[in-house]
Amino acid sequence: MKIAFVGKGGSGKTTLSALFIRHLAAAGHPVVAVDADINQHLGPALGLTDGQAAALPSLGAHLPEIKEYLRGDNPLIHCAEEMIKTTPPGPGSRLLRIVEENPVYAACARPVALDEGSVRLMATGAFTEEDLGVACYHSKVGAVELLLNHLLDGPDEYLVTDMTAGSDSFASGLFTRFDLTFLVAEPTRKGVSVYRQYKEYAQDFDVHLRVIGNKVQGPDDLDFLQREVGEDLYACFGQSGWVRRLERGDEPPLRELEPANREVLARLRTAADSSHGLRDPRRYSAQAVRFHLRNAESWGNAKVGIDLATQVDPDYVLGAERASTAGV
Ligand SMILES: Nc1ncnc2c1ncn2[C@@H]1O[C@H](COP(=O)(O)OP(=O)(O)OP(=O)(O)O)[C@@H](O)[C@H]1O
Ligand SMILES: [Mg+2]
């Protein structure tokens, strides 16, 4: 399952995605963790020192190798330079699995040992002031979109992404690439306004969205979220002393997390797992093509100098090859 955590700055995306990742890893499940937020904090939240986090390879810096690997011998893609972030896979493309060794993981992922279990971590790379001036956020997360479009993940395997919810996410197709999006909302007007904005953008794309209240302190907070979010409110994570300990530099073991908050993590997993059954590989591939054609027209064709629509095999459905072998 491909899961995203989005929300207003400071709402708790990194905290909740790191906790969810640790929860899954503790249960022994394979997890690829992806830091795709403007504020790159997932590494430290998973226990890396600042030095270790700074030494993580950045996906953006490895784009040429990633493209070269993924294109495989797809006859519709003549060279890596002709691949843009939305170029969809086709026959001959190399696909990624959550559990395998491949050159992309070798170059861009690092293992992170947790108190229970371990995960692979990938990061888009830090966003500097200069980046924000010239290269926009979506040029950095382009590598993540490419990876997700080439990922074959099965049940009980997870890719969890810490994202931003800024409107920049909607400039690319990345927000449509997840089986489930958790929107983290504090019980404040700003927290819920980000939810409304996200929902509005997302509803034309069948994005499966669930709101997780965070830093919920009592019945008033809960009432507020229930009133403002309605049935999209899926669970509420409380104001947590355990998270506070983490903030103070302690390393509390996951098993000491407050039982009610542990329960929330279990509920998130239930939602994630049930999203698998709602998948529609045809729609997923068709959306990839739709974003590719849109990007091709708006900047890709001019940049690469070819008609990028020729990269599309209209009959190709990601996952269909796997489904057909699994079915026999
Ligand atoms: N449930 C909670 N209980 C107590 N503190 C929390 C909780 N959730 C988050 N925090 C604290 O709130 C702050 C913001 O959390 P976090 O960094 O996870 O948010 P974010 O959405 O990832 O922020 P950014 O947009 O900066 O990436 C942190 O200091 C974190 O420790
Ligand atoms: Mg964060």
UniProtKB/TrEMBL annotation:
SUPFAM superfamilies: P-loop containing nucleoside triphosphate hydrolases. Coiled coil: none annotated. Residues 7-162 form the CobQ/CobB/MinD/ParA nucleotide binding domain. GO terms for molecular function: ATP binding; ATP hydrolysis activity. GO terms for cellular component: cytoplasmic side of plasma membrane; cytosol. GO terms for biological process: negative regulation of cell division. It comes from the Bacteria. This is CobQ/CobB/MinD/ParA nucleotide binding domain-containing protein. It comes from Kitasatospora setae (strain ATCC 33774 / DSM 43861 / JCM 3304 / KCC A-0304 / NBRC 14216 / KM-6054). The lineage of its organism: Bacteria, Bacillati, Actinomycetota, Actinomycetes, Kitasatosporales.
